[in-house]
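Much of the work behind modern protein science is quiet bookkeeping, done one molecule at a time. The protein below has been through that process, and both of its lines are reproduced in full.


***
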Amino acid sequence: MADDERLQDLPQVLVLGPPTTFPLIQSLCSHKFHFLNPETSSLPLHQFLASDNRDPSSIRAILCSPRSRVSGEVLQLLPSVGLVLTTSVGLDHIELAECRRRGIQVAGAGTVFTEDVADMAVGLLIDVGVKISAASRHVRSRVGSGAGAFNFPTGFKLRGKRVGIVGLGNIGTETAKRLEAFGCIISYTSKNKKPSVSYPFYETILELASVCDALILCCALNQETRHMVNREVMMAMGKEGIIVNVGRGSLIDEKELVKCLVGREIGGAGLDVFENEPHVPPQLFELDNVVLSPHAAVFTFESTRAISELMTANLEAFFSNSPLLSPAI
């Protein structure tokens, strides 16, 4: 049987993005699924779906990255789609209301990235506070300069710092556990109070910010959480306050954050995510009280393999009418 004929007999999956891990996913299951990747074409999506004698109604699943918007308009092009599979924990790029209306299943990364993102959150907090990256730049800038003794500002001690977790889900909980080991004092705000948790709970992020030295954002992005960290919250933290964001960039009013950091109205920030990725405000590049990461918390060797295997397993489950491994809604 010719390759084209063999592919036509396989379940069809539309790939949007594509996800960073797509090459590995392909290597694991390209013999089981026919992946349709619009990135291989210069055509708009609606034209791509109609090209090469394709039948959009034969596509039953979407595999996407968090950079690809799965809007109602996209879903309308695919009358038979029954699964949207994303390689992310966050779902803000998917039109969930339309998925619910049509009975489309949605699956995500589950807990695959939990430990990696928690590690990144703690790492960013330490880096900002102890000034590791800034110290490295300071040392490197002295090479060949004939400079005298080191003259570098001191950082802070992590033990005893009051750290507020915004969103005490899987990632927030693992972050809190790690910081407890450093002797930090943990409190949190979340959609609901957790009866099984002994950490002090605050109803609003403003209340939490007013009693904390640092905030770590681990929550989902939605209409309620967009720009939840505004100027009022930043001012409540004071001049020594540190903000770490491993959630989504739009959790913070980025323009106000830049103003506060440049004006030294808060102590610093550790950012793995940005409001308009891949754009990063250039004003942040020269600030030694800011640590920047390219949305890379999840990119470890172990998690890259694990998410690829999870995506493959979810596709296999869906096309065999079995329960999904990581349902998101």
Observations:
- The CA atoms of residues 155 and 323 lie 50 Å apart.
- The radius of gyration is 22 Å.
- The first helix runs from residue 3 to 8.
